[in-house]
Amino acid sequence: MKNDNIEDLFKSLDFDVAEPSEDHQERFKKKLKQRLKKKTKTSGIISLWTPVLAIAATFLVAFLLFQGVFDNGLGKEQDLASVSPEMKNTQDFYASVITRELYNLQQEKTPETEAVIEDALKQIQILEKDYEKLKTDLSQSGQDRRVISAMITNFQKRIDLLTNVLEKVNNINDLKNVPHENNIL
């Protein structure tokens, strides 16, 4: 029964059973050859340039990575100098003052002042760690003015700390140099 239905189905369908013309096969082969020639010409050019382009692309990606263009986790931190030329001058000024104050503090180091100086240096390290966090915040915030202000304030705190400690050290050294034998309690 099932076979009868299938045979009826095929009989009812109109299939094109006409034979193609005699030159049909020749025309098909000719068109196929033409297409193959075009593909080999273009693929030959592409195959020559593929290694060169791959090497160039590799160098470009490596260069961009090293330049910090891909800033999503791989990028470098920004500091004040990256914001503007004025901020670079500000950063350079504060850095030079801090360096000078640290040098002066080290010159005043004596056994009597060593504990005060060591404590100040620990506090400076804490402020420097805070500054490193601010640099990260600056690069993530897109140079937000509040972060820039916090960075400048951090520099000012370091200078104030060093100035105050230097004054304390000078007071300690002055007290050491004053003869106390004449003082009456």
Characterize this entry briefly:
The chain is mostly helical and 185 residues long. The chain contains five helices and no strands.
Can you tell me about this structure?
The protein has 185 residues and is mainly α. It is 75% helix and 0% strand. It is built from 5 helices and no strands. Helix 3 packs parallel to helix 5 and helix 4 runs antiparallel to helix 5 (145-177). The radius of gyration is 41 Å and the shape is rod-shaped.
Count of individual domains? 2
The helix-strand sequence is: HHHHH
Number of helices: 5
Radius of gyration: 41 Å
In what range is the share of β-strand residues? under 5%
Given as residue ranges, the uncertain stretches (5+ residues, pLDDT < 50) are 69-75
Counted beta strands: 0
Structural class category:
mainly alpha
Estimate the global geometry from the Cα principal axes: rod-shaped
In angstroms, what separates the terminal alpha carbons?
Answer: 132 Å
Major sheet attributes: none
The helical percent reads: over 70%
Average pLDDT level: 78
Transmembrane segments: 45-66
Organism: Salinimicrobium marinum
Keywords: Coiled coil, Membrane, Transmembrane, Transmembrane helix
Coiled coil: 117-144
